[in-house]
Each structure stands twice: as C-alpha cells, then as structure tokens.
Specification:
Largest sheet: 5 strands, antiparallel
Distance between the termini: 38 Å
Strand order of the largest sheet: 1-2-3-5-4
Order of helices and strands: HEEEHEHEHHHEEEEHHHHH
CATH topology of the largest domain: Aminoglycoside 3'-phosphotransferase, Chain: A, domain 2
Helix content: 25-40%
CATH architecture of the largest domain: Alpha-Beta Complex
Number of domains: 2
Number of helices: 11
Radius of gyration: 20 Å
CATH class of the largest domain: Alpha Beta
Shape: globular
Amino acid sequence: MSFDDPTRPPRPGEEVDAGRLAEYLRSVRPDITGPVEIAQFPSGHSNLTYLVKVGGDELVLRRPPAGKKPRSGHDMHREWVMISALHGHFPYVPEPVAYCEDPSVLGAPFFLMRRIRGLILRRDLPPELHLDPNAMRTLCERLIDVHRELHSLDCHELGLGGMGRPEGYVERQIAGWSRRYREARTPDVPDFEEVMAWLEANRPPERGAAVIHNDYRFDNVVLDPDDPLRILGVLDWEMATVGDPLMDLGASLAYWVQRDDPPELHAIRLVPTHLPGALTRREVVERYTRAADLPVDDFTFYYVYGLFRLAGIAQQIYYRYYHGQTRDGRFARMGRAVHVLEATARRAMARRSL
C-alpha cells in the first residue's frame, strides 16, 4: 500500500518546461539521464514543488511562485545552502542535487533534491492509517525530539555561522513581521496593531543561537510507511536560518491545534494534532524545554509570536489572491484564517496561557 504524496499535472500558469530542464540537467548532472516527466505536488502554499522523474531517478524541484513576494521570502539559494550544509550531519535532510540561479532556464531560480519517499500527514490521517492514542503520543514525542536534535547542531561547524544574525533576533523578528504584515494587509483583515504592540512590550531575552527550520510541523515531515512512528525526512527549508530556538518552537506551536480548542481554530487546522493521544501545546513545550535544558516560566510570548507570524505568512499568500496574482482557489480562505489567528492571539495574551 502506498502513502506517497499525490501529484497531478501542473496548475495553469505553473508549468515547467521539461525540455529546458532536461537540457540543464545534461549540462550539470550527466549522471542523471533519461526522459524527463514532471508532475506537481499540489498541497504547498508557498514555493512551487514538483516531482521530476528522470529515467530511474526521482527528484523534487523547488521554485518560487509568481506574484508579489516578500523581500526575504522564496529564497532558493538560502534553502539550497541549508540543505547542502545539513546533508551528512542531520539525517533527515534531503540530498541536494543541483541549484540554478539563471532565470533564463525556467523563468526563476530553482533547485533539485532527491525525493524522500514516505508518508506525509496532512489535515487528517489517510483512511488506511490508524494511530491509537499511545502511538499518536509517541509520534508527537519523536517529532519534538527531532526538532530539538536540529537545534542541538553546531551552526559554526556546519559553516552556517554567517547565515543569520542571532544577536537581536527576537527584536528583528517582531519588527520584520510587523512590517511585512502591514505591507501585505488588505482592507478585509484585522490590523493586528494591538498584538504587535504587546509583542514589542513583552519581548524576552535572547535564548541562544541554533539552526532553526522556521516552519517545522507534521506536514513538513516524512514518515516511514512501514513504521509510521519513524521519521525519515524533514522538508521545506526555505525559511531556515540561525536564530533563537524558542522562537522556532513558538512558530511550530502556532500550527498545534489541540482537541479542546474552539471550533474556528479547528476549521483552519492543517495537521492532525487534535487526535486522541496527541500532546497538548503545554506538553510539547515541557518535553522540548526539559530535554534542551531551556526552562521557561511562561511560553505565552513565543506562542503569540507564532500565531502572528503565521498570520503574516497567510496574509502574504492571501494578498496574492486578493490582487489576482494567483488563481489558486485555496488561497481565498487565507483571509478567514488571519481573522482566526488574531482572535487566538488575543485570547492567549489575555489569559497568559497556551
């Protein structure tokens, strides 16, 4: 039984020229030969992702979308540098194959990596897969442990010391996401000004520097189909950098919709963290901080930051749809998600809780 992520023909306007790609591959990787077949992974909301079959090889191609892009977003070179540096040191990163910065090849910079075959959990479990409460708890614990393993790597030994600026990281993130949200705001979403002011007033001290993923969640993790509790890979490194690991955990926590959350939060849930046995947000924080020896008395700031940051990402996507820069109908729902995330952030601020 296959749990592979489904593909389909590329969406209109998002096609890849197979002939140009084949010509490029012949010039840079003559060891990868054969006819080129291209299909699209349709589930992503940011960079465009394709399955490229070349003879007996299965590759994944990543390239930016069309339309307005944030200045620091959709950086193919950043993602390429990250997976290249981590390959051989972090066993879950895909094998890098080739990077092309010349837009004359496919219209934008892109890179190729080896496909990691396996199961990716989306909003709900596939009908063929059943995880009892004990199994679900174990999977959640392993997800958190792999996140901590990433943060334990020495960025300087990996040659990534210059990738980010860890000093002042927290302050820059609040300022940066505030600017990006204001720039992408459309008239039909909340202004988030109260949340931005609260984050600025409640900034905690820096908690060290680590390689951080910045979008670590269940649907960016590949599981072994024969043992779904075993993690094979971690995908989507486009926002990875060097920064405060607790900010990375807060960003992940924004996706963690637990069983007792309000219906409107469940309506925008992307991953199955609501299942019986799944850790609560508080248990996620306790497991991570205990193992990483980073005690935190109150994690509310990091959770609110994660919610605001996720709203910023959703709004940047919604901006493209609102202004007709993409025809992907999934993006029409992003505006509603921004409303829900703002209300959730306000509740957390008022209760000082997760």
